């Protein structure tokens, strides 16, 4: 990315918003690169980026402001916003000539129209001017390493400011704001998810005129982009219905919350870092000093998705690659040959000095900052820089992102690099780089956010867990080489089972590696809480005693003048339960151990230095732990007092207790919408995530492919429950079904698997955590009497749940016979029926139970007579949504099915809408049921001429509203108040 602009001028033009790069970075030879092209962003619902030549920057006007870089463009349906950096602070100066900044503020500029952009840009420019004037008068008391401009967090209208807005009187935004009239309309006036918005408790929602003004209801009555969503392919003419909606209303209602979250996340959180001429997303040994090349990619590039339009247009020079995590730097001075003094002389002065490195440091030079005591030798100044990079893979918040995904990516994956170099020589001398990684257990598991110490719940089969673990360590091995695992969880208690699964997985993987002639993975299980009981965290030295030799073998990377002379041979992978507190204590100890080794290579023996506590080092690592803790758990790291001082006391314990309660509160209330926003900004989900969030105030894990899980469940059910090999398997699908059998209404619904063969259908209730069949019900197709499909409303608490075109299902009615079986998996050497055991006087119940029917000895005639009095049973099935927020095609609930004897592929079925899927499956069940039922020889109907399908509401909207209790409605609205 040669010529990356240090600043860009944001200007509103007649036909587009213009970005002009200012002050591009000089080349290494000092020459100034040619001017970057002027960038034009087209206004409107379909935002596009293009270049318009290499003209000089347009003159600054009231409709322009300077920004320190472009973060990207976020789009929610036809609303788009440009994010630019308006405030930054320098946190490091690598090698004395590569500044690294943290973003402290961003501006959001609407791209709907020129007028909207012009209003926003003008207000941003005014805010910038006012702030510079205000800060200019107090510059003597402020740090010199912070540069400002643009919008403060409080200057964007907050959604919680909307207290009693009506359709006719809007809330006027504050003076200094970047919101446009449309942004104002969305944020201030229509923000029905504001903290005290009265619309929360209104069933009617927006008026039609207000929806029209927002572009949600054009004259046709169908929102834009929703026409012709479904194609009626493969649907019989008698069952075709109108097209459905795309869920845009929920996303646009939550747009104010998303904009606010994006501004806080990228700006005031102070967690995103960048450099203009150094790539902070890559390790030193992997080209981090080569600058920002055009191929900036990887798992630490956080704004890659929202800057895609710029990259596609070939104007990457105006976009800053951002890394989330931590950057900290310290300068310290050591004596090569420290003088030997008596213990009591001068109170034991320190011979190691630490200084914060900042642009204002030179001003403080000589202000009493020299070394204390007698100098026994040559002083040398070193700089240590710690960079922690959070992965964009499986990114998110504690309890909402745990364990591993199918591709081997783990939650809270962090690479921490510790860089050491001599201050006077910079990168011309020997530069040491030591990297270590942390990450959640490479195991499928979850934990409840509603407990201070929740029990881990293991998920999925042993094979699924091992396959993911193998991918994870395979990727780590390719990147780092030799692997050493440090597992810090308890060997007893709630943490032990997951630690044992982890250990067994590594042992199995090592067996495979040995067979392949590869190096085994080292595994050290160190029970941190047991060894350090009584707050004796200094006992971590026991772990260092075990791993010290291995750390020396792994070594560090050494780079001289940009050339890698030696590479680190492997990496330490450390984890505790959250990979925060215990992990940070141990990683800081490993980092200190390697620092001593590196200085020893430079001829400095730290054991002879007076300052053995190295508070400058401990403080740096404590800051690192706090940063990662806040980003993952919402609070700073616990045990921070020990990391900083190497001492532990009751005050630290009380502080940790408070942090635990804060983490519990965040997990219960604050994390859900932030997690949805992170997934959306990273491109893991589409705008439909906000519709899903509105329905239950929760978020799903987009990295876990539900399509794959359902397909695997279908295959497993097929193997377990279809006993007769002569039965031809037709298809399998996942549906929602009432938890209570033989009913269409239930307090809860569960996802089950429906299998269809040429002679029977099977409803399999599945344990999705353990990948096991809990029970199944077999129905002979000859006994099916009716198939009803239509609207199936199970809840009315959100607009998505009352959409009659998406909430559909079918009910299969049948008369139980001898061949109909229900079995329950008891996890033992027996199975049981869901129904009471029959008596001799109740043969109908015997037929119903199935199991007894096989051994009852009753003849077929008796069975037929009993069938007359047998009550009809029902199987109710509600279709899963065919479109989900997961940014992957075909995430519906369909599987394979033979339609008219011809097999359709998964993708073809998945592209159907919910009603189309229901109709296709119902028609196939009807066809096979008629083939299995005896034809009437003397009657009017011949084989195949009858119809079992009936169209009608299963549960209508009106009926569902009558059955929705007041407590359920109020409960959901309270959740909105808290979560949204």
UniProtKB/TrEMBL annotation:
<dbReference type="Pfam" id="PF12456">
    <property type="entry name" value="hSac2"/>
</dbReference>
<dbReference type="Pfam" id="PF02383">
    <property type="entry name" value="Syja_N"/>
</dbReference>
<feature type="region of interest" description="Disordered">
    <location>
        <begin position="132"/>
        <end position="183"/>
    </location>
</feature>
<feature type="compositionally biased region" description="Polar residues">
    <location>
        <begin position="219"/>
        <end position="234"/>
    </location>
</feature>
<feature type="region of interest" description="Disordered">
    <location>
        <begin position="331"/>
        <end position="377"/>
    </location>
</feature>
<dbReference type="InterPro" id="IPR002013">
    <property type="entry name" value="SAC_dom"/>
</dbReference>
<dbReference type="InterPro" id="IPR034753">
    <property type="entry name" value="hSac2"/>
</dbReference>
<dbReference type="InterPro" id="IPR022158">
    <property type="entry name" value="Inositol_phosphatase"/>
</dbReference>
<feature type="compositionally biased region" description="Basic and acidic residues">
    <location>
        <begin position="345"/>
        <end position="367"/>
    </location>
</feature>
<feature type="domain" description="SAC">
    <location>
        <begin position="268"/>
        <end position="634"/>
    </location>
</feature>
<feature type="domain" description="HSac2">
    <location>
        <begin position="704"/>
        <end position="855"/>
    </location>
</feature>
<feature type="region of interest" description="Disordered">
    <location>
        <begin position="214"/>
        <end position="234"/>
    </location>
</feature>
<protein>
    <recommendedName>
        <fullName>Recessive suppressor of secretory defect</fullName>
    </recommendedName>
</protein>
């Amino acid at each position: 990315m040669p010529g990356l602009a240090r600043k860009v001028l944001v200007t509103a033009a007649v036909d587009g918003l213009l970005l002009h790069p200012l002050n591009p970075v000089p080349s290494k030879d000092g020459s100034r690169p040619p001017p970057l092209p002027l960038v034009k962003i087209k206004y409107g619902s379909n935002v596009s980026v293009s270049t318009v030549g290499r003209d000089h920057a347009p003159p600054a006007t009231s409709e322009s402001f300077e920004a320190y870089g472009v973060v990207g463009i976020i789009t929610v349906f036809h609303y788009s916003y440009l994010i630019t950096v308006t405030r930054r602070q320098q946190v490091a100066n690598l090698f004395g000539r590569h500044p690294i900044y943290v973003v402290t503020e961003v501006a959001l500029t609407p791209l709907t129209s020129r007028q909207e952009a012009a209003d926003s840009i003008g207000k941003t420019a005014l805010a910038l001017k006012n702030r510079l004037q205000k800060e200019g008068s107090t510059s003597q008391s402020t740090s010199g390493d912070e540069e400002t401009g643009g919008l403060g967090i409080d200057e964007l209208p907050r959604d919680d400011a909307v207290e009693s807005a009506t359709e006719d009187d809007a809330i006027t935004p504050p003076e200094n704001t970047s919101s446009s009239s449309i942004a104002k309309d969305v944020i201030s006036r229509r923000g029905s998810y504001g903290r005290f918005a009265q619309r929360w408790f209104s069933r009617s929602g927006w008026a039609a005129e207000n929806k029209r003004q927002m572009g949600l209801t054009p004259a046709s009555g169908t929102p834009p982009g929703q026409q012709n969503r479904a194609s009626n392919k493969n649907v019989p003419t008698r069952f075709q219905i109108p097209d459905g909606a795309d869920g845009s209303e929920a996303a646009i209602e939550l747009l104010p919350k998303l904009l606010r979250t994006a501004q806080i996340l990228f700006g005031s959180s102070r967690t995103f870092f960048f450099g203009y001429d150094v790539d902070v997303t890559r390790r030193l040994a992997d080209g981090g000093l080569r600058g920002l090349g055009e191929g900036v990619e990887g798992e630490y590039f956080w704004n890659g998705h929202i800057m895609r339009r710029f990259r596609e247009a070939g104007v990457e020079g105006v976009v800053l690659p951002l890394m989330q995590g931590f950057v900290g730097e310290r300068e310290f001075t050591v004596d090569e040959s420290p003088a030997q003094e008596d213990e009591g002389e001068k109170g034991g002065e320190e011979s190691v000095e630490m200084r914060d490195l900042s642009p204002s440091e030179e001003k403080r030079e000589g202000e009493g900052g020299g070394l204390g005591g007698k100098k026994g030798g040559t002083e040398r100044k070193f700089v240590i820089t710690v960079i922690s990079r959070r992965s964009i893979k499986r990114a998110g918040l504690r309890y909402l992102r745990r364990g591993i995904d199918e591709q081997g990516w783990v939650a809270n994956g962090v690479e921490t690099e510790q860089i050491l170099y001599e201050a006077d020589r910079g990168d011309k001398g020997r530069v040491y780089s030591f990297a270590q990684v942390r990450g959640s257990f490479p195991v499928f598991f979850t934990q409840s956010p509603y407990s201070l110490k929740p029990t881990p719940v293991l998920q999925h089969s042993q094979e699924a867990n091992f396959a993911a673990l193998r991918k994870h360590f395979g990727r780590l091995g390719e990147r780092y080489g030799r692997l050493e695992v440090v597992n810090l969880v308890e060997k007893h208690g709630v943490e032990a089972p997951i630690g044992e699964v982890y250990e067994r997985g590594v042992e199995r993987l090592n067996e495979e590696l040995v067979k392949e002639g590869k190096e085994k993975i080292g595994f050290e299980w160190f029970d941190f809480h047991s060894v350090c009981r009584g707050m004796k965290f200094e006992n971590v030295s026991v772990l260092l005693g075990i791993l010290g030799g291995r750390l020396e073998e792994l070594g560090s990377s050494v780079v001289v003048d940009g050339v890698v002379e030696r590479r680190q041979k492997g990496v330490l992978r450390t984890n505790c339960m959250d990979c925060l507190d215990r992990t940070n204590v141990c990683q800081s100890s490993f980092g200190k151990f390697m620092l001593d080794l590196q200085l020893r290579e430079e001829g400095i023996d730290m054991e002879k230095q007076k300052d053995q506590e190295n508070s400058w080092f401990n403080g740096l690592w404590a800051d690192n732990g706090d940063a990662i803790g806040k980003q993952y758990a919402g609070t700073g790291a616990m045990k921070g007092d020990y990391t900083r001082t190497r001492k532990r006391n009751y005050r630290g314990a009380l502080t940790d207790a408070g942090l635990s309660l804060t983490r519990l509160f965040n997990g219960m209330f604050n994390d859900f919408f932030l997690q949805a926003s992170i997934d959306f900004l990273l491109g893991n989900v589409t705008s439909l995530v906000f519709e899903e969030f509105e329905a239950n105030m929760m978020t799903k894990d987009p990295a876990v492919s539900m399509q794959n899980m359902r397909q695997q469940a279908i295959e497993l059910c097929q193997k377990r429950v279809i006993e007769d090999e002569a039965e031809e398997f037709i298809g399998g699908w996942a549906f929602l079904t009432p938890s209570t059998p033989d009913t269409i209404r239930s307090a809860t619904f569960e996802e089950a698997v429906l299998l269809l063969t040429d002679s029977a259908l099977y409803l399999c209730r599945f344990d999705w955590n353990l990948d096991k069949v809990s029970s199944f019900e077999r129905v002979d197709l000859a006994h099916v009497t009716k198939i009803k499909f239509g609207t199936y409303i199970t809840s009315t608490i959100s607009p998505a749940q009352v959409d009659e075109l998406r909430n559909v299902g079918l009910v299969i009615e049948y008369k139980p016979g001898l061949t109909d079986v229900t079995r329950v998996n008891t996890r033992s050497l027996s199975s049981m029926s869901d129904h009471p055991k029959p008596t001799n006087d109740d043969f109908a119940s015997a037929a119903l139970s199935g199991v007894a029917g096989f051994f009852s000895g009753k003849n077929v005639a008796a069975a037929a007579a009993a069938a007359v009095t047998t009550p009809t049973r029902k199987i109710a099935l509600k279709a899963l949504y065919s479109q989900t927020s997961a940014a992957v095609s075909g995430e519906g609930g369909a599987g394979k099915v033979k339609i008219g004897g011809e097999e359709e592929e998964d993708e073809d079925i998945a592209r159907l809408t919910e009603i189309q899927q229901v109709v296709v499956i119902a028609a196939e069940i009807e066809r096979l049921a008629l083939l299995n039922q005896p034809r009437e020889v003397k009657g009017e109907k011949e084989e195949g001429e009858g119809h079992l399908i009936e169209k009608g509401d299963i549960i209508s909207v009106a009926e569902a509203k009558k059955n929705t209790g007041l407590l359920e409605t109020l409960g959901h609205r309270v959740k909105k108040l808290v979560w949204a």
